[in-house]
Specification:
Blueprint: H1 18-24, E1 30-35, E2 38-45, E3 55-56, E4 63-64, E5 70-75, E6 84-86, H2 88-92
Antiparallel strand pairs: 1-2, 2-5, 3-4, 5-6
Length: 110
Amino acid sequence: MSPRRNRPKGAGSSGRSGEDDRSGRYGGWQSTESWRGEDWSVRNVAGASAQGKSYRCPGCDQLIPDGVPHVVAWPEHSGVDERRHWHKACWNAKDRRTTRVQRSRNAPRF
């Protein structure tokens, strides 16, 4: 019995195109979602590719610490300047939130 081969046989046999490779480079899959009448590009970012970087989530106005998996979203018609980093839960709850979340001083930070 021969040992199992875990590596692809050649560069062309992986079955993935260059576009798929580009979207998977940062640890996640890219999709398109509709929100507020616009199409948004949404990419999941793995925690390993977010090492050494922290972002502020526009959904809850809290920091996304480095190394935490999250979502990057931007309108399809705009460029790199419009990308925003969201907590996954905040992105999923975006329709249930107001445009600007205002918290009091003694409100718990979740």
